[in-house]
Specification:
With 165 residues, this protein is mainly β. Helices cover 5% and strands 52% of the residues. β10 and β11 form a beta hairpin.
Length: 165
């Protein structure tokens, strides 16, 4: 079971944040907030701070991502976008394989052990080996097939076996 680290805001998915201006031509350094770094290469348009921008160029340099937007032609215009989020419509989310879920879809799901409600997922912790669901800020459930029996995103319901961990 694999989570992705994209964030969500209503019908939009946050895929990055503007880290600052690079150079004098309005190019922006982007801090990715997605597991799909390649998705920046496919962008034609993106929302930044709620305003839509056309992408002119995407560069990957030294493990960093830089984007040049149409109409952002100088350092001052670029600096005005610093710390703003890059978002795309939810319908444009990167497709996931079976058994993979977006973290924002997991957060808010009710967790049950059989018929007994344990609580609601309030966070997903990234541990390196596997993710861990944080339930009501105090219960931790490993996101492993042995502990999580099923996830129904449409019903916002997760069924777990507390005896398995």
């Amino acid at each position: 079971m694999k989570m992705t680290k994209s964030l969500q805001s209503a019908a939009e998915i946050i895929i990055g944040r503007v880290g600052g201006a690079r150079g004098l031509d309005g190019t922006l350094k982007i801090i990715p907030l997605t597991d799909f770094d390649g998705r920046f290469d496919e962008l034609n348009e993106v929302f930044v701070g709620g305003k839509i921008f056309r992408v002119e160029e995407v560069k990957h340099t030294g493990g960093q991502i830089f984007i040049k937007f149409a109409g952002v032609d100088n350092r001052d215009a670029a600096k005005a976008l610093t710390n703003k989020f890059l978002t795309v419509d939810r319908k444009d989310a990167a497709p996931l394989a079976d058994g993979e879920f977006y973290t924002f879809d997991i957060i808010g799901c009710e967790v049950f052990d059989g018929d007994k409600k344990i609580g609601t997922v309030t966070g997903v912790l990234k541990t390196g080996s596997n993710d861990v669901f944080e339930v009501d800020g105090k219960i931790l459930i490993p996101a492993l097939k042995s502990a999580v029996q099923s996830i129904d995103i449409a019903a916002k319901k997760i069924l777990v076996n507390v005896n398995a961990y």
